[in-house]
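testing teh design pipeline on a random one, pls ignore if ur not involved
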């Protein structure tokens, strides 16, 4: 007898390109970070300096009942849920990017409450996941938001989400597009890696350009700084760039995430009109204090004369762009 609580598996629509390549079609190549720690990484103790103290620190923040705005045809509504999770709204569509309501990532405690409750979400038309890491692809959160809508992921990530209740799973290679009505979604390269576990390094990773009604949003996923930002900006006119600024002092010492100064450099490379910082203040994945990334970001932006183009968001409070 079939299990009535088990959701049917969605069809995985594979990319037409050969799996396993991490390169763009004609230029910006995705750079894969190796797993080898930097020399001297063991001189600090992440367990005693960061992980254990965070267990005794109470979670900050609180859930807010969101006041979602009425949007015009060329307006974009953004609500930061926390970490890299965003609700992206247009006049006709609601999208979720890297939705994560988890209170724990295995041993990592969520240090700040999600900005809104799952039950406060509007009906979601499309879900995007940038890569398979646990802080971006949270199966429990995805199962709760899945309501027979499509989900878009990088290549070889589909089998991690096809059994959660989505209508269809669409895998993309770099610079490939997915269309849903007026929405156009493009996967872009980045400098990171996509393994869920150590043995599945074949999985893709990247960012997404979301285009609709003549406007565009770039969620770059997880990335260290790389020269590919220049080509992404040349290929796409970007109105709003969602760029990570935290987890830049990791236990292994590897260059896997941008620091705030590199995020400003990436913003300038992209030629974007406005930047929204993300990937900080939620999970303590690195040695830097949770409050440090936005402080450094605003100081650097001031030095470069772009402070008025930085929008630091508060979890659960929608902004219109």
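output:
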């Amino acid at each position: 007898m079939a299990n009535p609580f088990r959701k049917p598996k969605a069809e995985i629509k594979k990319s037409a390109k050969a799996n396993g390549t991490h390169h763009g079609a004609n230029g910006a190549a995705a750079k894969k970070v190796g797993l080898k720690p930097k020399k001297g990484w063991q001189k600090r103790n992440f367990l005693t300096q960061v992980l254990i103290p965070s267990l005794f620190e109470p979670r900050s923040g609180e859930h807010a009942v969101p006041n979602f705005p009425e949007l015009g045809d060329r307006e974009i509504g953004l609500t930061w849920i926390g970490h890299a999770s965003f609700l992206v709204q247009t006049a006709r569509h609601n999208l979720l990017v890297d939705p994560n309501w988890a209170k724990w990532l295995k041993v990592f405690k969520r240090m700040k409450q999600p900005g809104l409750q799952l039950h406060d979400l509007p009906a979601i038309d499309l879900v995007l996941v940038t890569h398979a890491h646990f802080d971006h692809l949270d199966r429990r959160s995805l199962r709760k938001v899945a309501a027979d809508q499509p989900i878009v992921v990088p290549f070889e990530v589909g089998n991690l989400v096809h059994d959660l209740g989505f209508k269809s799973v669409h895998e993309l290679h770099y610079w490939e597009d997915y269309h849903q009505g007026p929405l156009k979604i493009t996967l872009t390269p980045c400098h990171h890696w996509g393994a869920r576990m150590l043995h599945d390094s074949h999985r893709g990773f990247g960012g997404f350009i979301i285009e609709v009604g003549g406007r565009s949003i770039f969620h770059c996923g997880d990335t260290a700084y790389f020269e590919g930002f220049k080509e992404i900006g040349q290929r796409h006119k970007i109105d709003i760039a969602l760029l990570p600024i935290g987890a830049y002092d990791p236990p292994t010492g590897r260059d896997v995430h941008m620091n705030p100064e590199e995020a400003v450099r990436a913003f300038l490379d992209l030629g974007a009109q406005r930047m929204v910082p993300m990937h900080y203040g939620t999970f303590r994945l690195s040695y830097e204090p949770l409050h440090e990334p936005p402080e450094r970001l605003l100081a650097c932006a001031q030095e470069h004369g772009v402070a008025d183009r930085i929008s630091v968001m508060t979890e659960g409070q929608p902004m219109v762009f």
